């Protein structure tokens, strides 16, 4: 059974399962989900905690031996297994399947992995662990969900905040939930369980926003030129290599150009998206981008990407970040080219 991180507390209230597999790439939510399981285990008498790090060269027999070793004092134990790569290998998969088939009453196994792709979720070891217990999936909080996440976090501390304060906090910490949690704690220390406004947030919170190239691509596809510009400037300030930024943008432009061509041939939008294997979660963004520009505009953007690449490589004069900004604004829908029809 699969569970979202926000459903975990309700499930733990019904009791512990012998196996918990927690996966995801968002550090704060991942650690808090694991902490919740640890606390529930401790409350139910699992007083011994044994931690394994399944890095390269890990002896999987240690896990098997630990599971089979019964304490002389009949202590219950929490076995925590971290798999940094999310891929245990053949020996690890076999050990995990064996554990799942013979899970002991006096032990709880907590397996912690990065995000597991769809193929890995279908492997025998994941299926076995899920059948013996539960798979908890930690998903990032996107920009649309962030304000409500902040409100819940503030409310848990007894803090009331108006919409302006929440919006400002979201802007300052976007992409960094750990920084957001820390800033909420700072606000609690400064004001206690009280009502705060935007001025209080501005005085207490530094700009902790952390963006990545995928946030840049998504905001551009969404047609949000202002946010796209801000994300790009953040990447530049953090010293991100412009090659990586161009790679992400050019890949998206090439894909949209191919889709736009199919669309001009009379293929329906939904069929185009399905034919190019666009993920379900991204269909709305890609569809918005596809319908924003005609094929000629995407071809212009491809030419601009080529020019930007030449500038980055030193084969043509110009400023790479200025060209990246032109590319981002073009994707977002800002008219840049004479004769460009959208």
Q: Gyration radius, to the nearest Å?
A: 24 Å
Mean pLDDT: 89
- Placed side by side, the strands forming the largest sheet appear as 1-6-2-5-4-3
Note the total helix count.
17
| Number of DSSP E strands | 8
**Form type:** globular
Structural class by secondary-structure content: alpha/beta
Q: Determine the fraction of residues in helical runs and give it as a percent range.
A: 55-70%
* Termini Cα gap: 46 Å
Q: Roughly what fraction of the amino acids lie in strands?
A: 5-15%
- Strand/helix succession: EHEHEHEHEHHEHEHHEHHHHHHHH
Query: Uncertain runs with pLDDT below 50, 5 residues or more?
Result: 338-342
Tell me about the biggest sheet?
6 strands, parallel
Keywords:
17 helices, 8 strands, two-stranded parallel ribbon, alpha/beta, globular, disordered C terminus, 342 residues
How would you characterize the overall build of this protein?
- This protein has 342 residues and is α/β, with parallel strands linked by helices.
- It is 56% helix and 11% strand.
- It contains 17 helices and eight strands.
- It has helices spanning 8-12, 27-43, 61-68, 89-101, 118-121, 124-132, 146-156, 163-173, 177-191, 198-204, 213-221, 225-237, 242-264, 269-275, 283-292, 295-312, 320-332, and strands at residues 2-4, 19-24, 48-53, 77-82, 107-113, 134-138, 160-161, 195-196.
- The strands form two sheets. A six-stranded parallel β-sheet has the order 1-6-2-5-4-3, sandwiched between helices. Strands 7-8 form a two-stranded parallel sheet.
- Strand 4, helix 4 and strand 5 (107-113) form a beta-alpha-beta unit.
- Helix 8 (163-173) runs parallel beside helix 10 and helix 12 (225-237) runs antiparallel to helix 17.
- The protein is globular, with a radius of gyration of 24 Å.
């Amino acid at each position: 059974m699969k569970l979202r991180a926000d459903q975990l507390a309700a499930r733990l209230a019904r009791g512990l399962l012998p196996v918990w597999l927690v996966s995801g790439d968002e550090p704060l939510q991942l650690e808090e989900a694991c902490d919740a399981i640890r606390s529930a285990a401790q409350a139910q008498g699992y007083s011994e905690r044994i931690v394994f790090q399944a890095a390269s060269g890990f002896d999987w027999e240690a896990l098997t031996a630990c599971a089979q070793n019964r304490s002389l004092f009949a202590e219950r134990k929490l076995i925590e297994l971290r798999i940094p790569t999310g891929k245990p290998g053949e020996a690890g998969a076999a050990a995990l399947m064996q554990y799942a088939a013979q899970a002991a009453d006096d032990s709880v196994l907590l397996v912690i992995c990065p995000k597991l792709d769809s193929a890995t979720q279908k492997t025998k070891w994941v299926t076995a662990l899920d059948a013996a217990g539960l798979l908890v999936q930690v998903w990032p909080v996107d920009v649309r969900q962030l304000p409500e996440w902040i409100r819940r976090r503030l409310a848990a501390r007894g803090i009331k905040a108006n919409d302006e304060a929440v919006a400002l906090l979201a802007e300052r910490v976007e992409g960094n939930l750990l920084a957001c949690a820390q800033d909420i704690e700072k606000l609690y220390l400064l004001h206690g369980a009280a009502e705060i406004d935007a001025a209080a947030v501005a005085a207490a919170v530094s700009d902790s926003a952390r963006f990545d190239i995928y946030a840049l691509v998504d905001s551009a596809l969404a047609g949000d030129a202002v946010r796209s510009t801000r994300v790009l400037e953040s990447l530049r300030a953090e010293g991100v290599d412009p090659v990586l930024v161009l790679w992400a943008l050019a890949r998206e432009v090439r894909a949209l150009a191919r889709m736009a061509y199919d669309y001009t041939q009379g293929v329906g939008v939904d069929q185009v998206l399905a034919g190019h294997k666009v993920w379900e979660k991204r269909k709305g963004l890609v569809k918005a981008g596809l319908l924003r520009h005609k094929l000629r505009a995407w071809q212009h953007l491809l030419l601009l990407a080529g020019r930007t690449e030449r500038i980055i490589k030193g084969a043509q004069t110009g400023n790479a970040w200025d060209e990246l900004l032109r590319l981002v604004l073009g994707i977002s829908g800002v008219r840049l080219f004479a004769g460009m029809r959208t």
